[in-house]
Amino acid sequence: MKLGCRLLLLVWLLATPTVIFRSASHSQAVSPSFDLVVINARVIDGSGNPWFRADVGVRDGRIVRIGRIAPSEARQTIDARGQILAPGFIDVHTHVESIYSLPAAENFVRMGVTTLVTGNCGSSTTNVGEFLGRTTKVPIAVNLATLIAHGSVRRQVVGLDDRAPTLDELKRMEDMVEQGMKDGAVGLSTGLIYVPGTYAKTDEIVALAKVAARYGGVYATHMRNEGDKVADAIRESIAIGEQAGLPVEISHFKISNKKLWGQSPMTLGLVRDARARGLQVTVDQYAYTASSTSLDSRLPSWLRAGGLTEAKKRLADQPTRQRVITEMKDNLKRSGFKDYDFAVVASYDPDRSFNGKSIAEITKLVRHKSDVANQIEQILAMYEAGGAGMIYHGMGEDDVKRIMQEPFTMIASDSGVRQQDESVPHPRGYGNNVRVLGHYVRELKLITLEDAIRKMTSLPAQTFGFPDRGLIKEGFAADFVIFDEKTIADRATYDHPHQFPLGISFVLVNGRTVLANDQLTSDRPGMALRGPGFLGA
Ligand SMILES: [Zn+2]
Q: Is residue 10 over pLDDT 80?
């Protein structure tokens, strides 16, 4: 390199905030001690401790030294230039059953996520061994773990019927959960608003949770109610944990009933009380005041028994249809919303022009009236046409903040792997972790940066049983995210969700770079992470 070029490069290096990535020359005589070293980092180690300055050396996918390291000792060097180096984020609440068709998992990687837990809300693969084993045939960018889901098991054994399982059926469900745990599931999940999970009574779930408990699993639940009966639902979740003897994770902890906004001290208090009694209960949360789920969650569960064909037959009967409408009106009233303006379509295949519009807006367009009765008819028509994915603007900001400040709350997206520009999904799939770091930490100073990182790393690892992840610590897996805490920001909005965040420059999974200087690499170093029941442990 000519002197002039070197000077120019030096000026550029001093001026730019970007992280520098370089490979040592091949002419080195001595073989390097590290595959990779990150120098000049401010390390936030995931424990909640304040940041410290260090270099971090990686060999064979593991952190082997934290301290002062000369770049000449490494095959590759990343100069963090004072940016933050944190453990890769662990997203414990995802729905990524489709990850093998989108193995880059770009929306997750670009918000710093290096490990996903899927199988949440009662819906998972029923063949955990095959699902996790596929990582060796179809390499993926991030690490993957799964829960075994009650709803999927029940569907296979009992179908979509609204009834209790027979003793024989319950035994078969227990066997399926046992097999899932032996194949490496990290616990049992439920989705008690969905068909068929909603038809299960508490004792059925306790029976299956006992199986998961025997294999060291956690009980992760999308509770029976997040609205007017949220306190009862929390009590049920806790009772299941106490009777079955396993830790409880309450998924996407929230209050979605407008009349109950401000009641999070009470709901968090129920969790604190259970912890005081000795039950391990934790919660996760996404950093938004809107939720996202299916349209049919607005409909009575008895209507949905047996699936859509059965439901359509019931709706064709006028008195039954009237009963559905009356129940929906009552539910709406109890939820504290005057109409369905808070309900926005994310994806509706029969007419994509509905995507991004509220039920109130769609009803006006289609029916030229927008009273509640017409809105309900519109919902029923869309349900009968196959249903829709929805976004519900149902939470209060004060509750979101209060839940975030609680020490046992972790940050999780509830997202799937996103396909760019497909439908108008919830922005959490592109921005969740980054929104916490940019908006709630830097702008609002609601929690410290170190505490926010703890909620995304060591707390999830501790809760879901990843003993060698979630901390920057010697011997731990080298899952890293490097970011500038002054510029990190989410860009995805409800109207334009398909936007990647700013401020994250590098993401490493098992010591290999999946994001380098803001560019996605083609590397796919993700591993299957199996729970303690694997191989009879
Ligand atoms: Zn859920």
A: no
